[in-house]
Write a structure and sequence with these properties.
Shape: extended
Order of helices and strands: HHEEHEEHHEEHEEHHEHEEE
Structural class: alpha+beta
Strand content: 15-25%
Number of strands: 12
Length: 406
């Protein structure tokens, strides 16, 4: 073939290159795990779990971007199998395990695994830093911050899952633990030893600071439970659609036959009586028997045709909108973790451009509030309370003295 490779040789060469690379299309280092055929998910279960995880993490990425004030991208996941022993071979550096328990809608637990360096960057961004303060050792501050981030992220994901399975999904507050596979594992990890998990791997990108992975571990039974809940709603929706399609169209009611028009007799001719001054007399006839002349409207009291069911119109009465006290507590719980910006306004003033250009270090600007007068507290720009300035150790604070009610 003049030195050209055949298609079989090209396929063999590509196969050997993939085997040497040892990674999948997401860049994960693949570790072969022996899974019993009875424990393996079907292709339908695998696709459904990947779709649920993709939608949930898409919502969680939006929440995380608000917390760290940076763009967060979490890509389409890859689904595989793993064990604790296989993870120990992959993670030579310490990592953070975040345990999440589902207590409503779904019953089970899953684990999120993040790299230690990624946790430090997320914590620094949440604390208002630029994400470069990662020299400190991973401690309780980092674990507490990542628990709060995961709590809000997975809360958003649970809301997305609720819409997919048409049932409220609630999670318990996550707990985080630093894991070093080179040291002795805790009791909870020892209980996971030898167990096969469904591994869902995402690529997580946070601005220019993080380009890493976040891993979810699902017990196989829990993964199947998610699939059954998801497919149960899908089958129910499709069944309702088929029932609506199969329902026969209602037979139209027969059109009532209009009653024949009454026959109006011709008026008899009237012979005028002889008189000296003859006058014209109008024929006398019943007004109800007269036919309407062209161009004149029908009288308003005309009886409707027979066979029509006419009823008086009924309208729904307007009720005042319920206040917050009428909202169910479980609905409020869904938005309890939404962050709001609280601003304390000491005062305001107006200056011309000339005055502002004359500002220099030491310039004193007089505000519109008097000394000792209550200051305003705004939430997302809305005036909600008044208070007074206090000092807490070395920081300023605000003591609320009055709640503004509209």
């Amino acid at each position: 073939m003049d030195g050209m490779l055949s298609q079989e040789e090209i396929n063999a060469l590509l196969g050997s290159m993939e085997a040497e690379d040892g990674s999948d299309d997401t860049g994960n280092s693949s570790v072969s795990v022996d899974v019993a055929e009875s424990d393996m998910l079907t292709p339908e279960e695998t696709d459904a779990l990947g779709e649920v995880a993709n939608i949930s993490m898409g919502t969680a990425a939006t929440t995380l971007s608000i917390l760290v004030n940076n763009r967060v991208d979490i890509t389409t996941p890859s689904v595989s199998y793993t064990t604790l022993e296989a993870l120990a071979e992959k993670h030579d550096a310490p990592c953070v395990f975040v345990y999440i328990s589902y207590r409503a809608g779904l019953e089970g637990k899953n684990v999120l695994i993040l790299k230690e360096h990624d946790v430090k960057i997320i914590t620094d961004l949440m604390m208002g830093g630029d994400g470069t303060n990662t020299d400190a050792e991973l401690g309780e501050l980092h674990l507490s911050a990542i628990c709060e981030a995961m709590n809000q992220m997975m809360g958003s994901a649970a809301t997305s899952m609720s819409s997919m399975i048409n049932e409220m999904v609630d999670i318990s507050p996550p707990t985080a633990t630093k894991i070093d596979f080179t040291k002795e594992l805790n009791d909870e990890l020892n209980s996971m030893s030898g167990q096969t998990f469904v591994q869902v791997v995402f690529r997580m990108v946070i601005g220019d600071l993080v380009d890493s992975q976040i891993v979810q571990l699902y017990p196989i039974d829990f993964a199947r439970n998610i699939y059954q809940q998801f497919m149960g709603v899908t089958m129910k929706d499709s069944g309702q659609a088929e029932a609506v399609a199969a329902e026969p169209e209602p037979t139209p009611a027969p059109t009532p036959t209009p009653a024949p028009a009454p026959v109006i007799p011709e008026p008899a001719p009237v012979t005028p009586a002889p008189s000296a001054q003859p006058q014209m007399q109008q024929p006398m006839m019943d007004m109800s028997m007269q036919q309407p002349m062209a161009g004149m409207q029908q009288p308003m009291n005309v009886m409707p045709p027979q066979g029509l069911n006419i009823q008086p119109a009924q309208f729904q009465s307007f009720m005042p909108a319920p206040n917050l006290d009428g909202i169910a507590p479980e609905n409020i719980d869904l938005i309890m973790d939404v962050p709001l910006e609280v601003t304390v306004e000491l005062g305001r003033t107006s200056k011309s451009i000339k005055d502002i250009l004359d500002f220099s270090p030491g310039t004193i600007i007089e505000l519109d509030k008097l000394a000792g007068e209550p200051i305003d507290v705004l939430v997302n720009g809305k005036f909600v309370a008044k208070g007074e300035v206090v000092v807490i150790e070395e920081s300023f604070g605000i003591r609320v003295t009055e709640i503004i009610k509209e």
